[in-house]
Amino acid sequence: MRTVLGLAALLALAGCVHPNSPIPDDPYYAPVYPDLPPSQVVTTGSIFNDGYANELYSDIKALKVGDVITVMLTEQTKAKKSASNEITKDNKMQLDPISAGGGPITVNGQTIDLSYKEKFDMSRESDADQSNSLAGSISVNVLQVLANGNLVIRGEKWITINDGDEFIRITGIVRPRDISPNNTIESTRVANARIQYSGTGTFADSQKSGWLSKFFSGPLWPF
Fold this sequence. Notes:
single chain; mainly beta; 6-stranded mixed sheet; two-stranded antiparallel sheet
C-alpha cells in the first residue's frame, strides 16, 4: 500500500513540474545587441560616424541585427470537422424439422430443427468545432539578416498578474518590404512563425488536468 501511495505522489509531483516549463529570462530569448562598429581615429575632429548614418530619405524601418520591430498580433483560426458512419449486419438461418418415413424425426420427443438469427447495428457520429483568436502587440529583436535580405526575428514579453505570469513569445522570418513605415508588421506576414501565449503560476495550474484525469481521458484507457 505504501508503495502505491508513494508512486502516486511521485506521479503527481511529476505532473506539477513540467521539464519544459517556460521561465523568465530564458537565454534563448535574451535581447540581441548590435555589434559595435570598429572605431577609427580621425584627424578631422568630426563626430560623424557612417556606421549609424541614414540616407536623407530613409525611414525608421529595422534593417540591422539588434533593431526592434513591433509585431501586431492579428491571429484568428477556425476549424470544424464532422464525421458519421453506420454499419448494419443482419444474418438469419432457418432449418425445418427433419422428416423421414412421412413424419418428423424426434430425439426424446423433440423434433430436430435449427433456427439462428443475428443482427448487428453500429452507428457513430463525431463533431469538432474549434476557434482561436489572438490580438495585441509585441516588440522583437532582429536576430539575423539573411543573404536575401530577410530578417530573422525573436522576442518575448512577460506580464506579472497577481500570483501568476503571462507571456507571449514569437519567432519567425519577415521581409523588409512587409514592414510598414512606422516599423510594425502583422503577425500574418511572419514566415515560419511560432507564437506562444500561455501562463504560469496558480491560475494556470488550476486549468490543467491532473495525471489521473489525463490517464482516463487518454488513449491508454481502453474504455
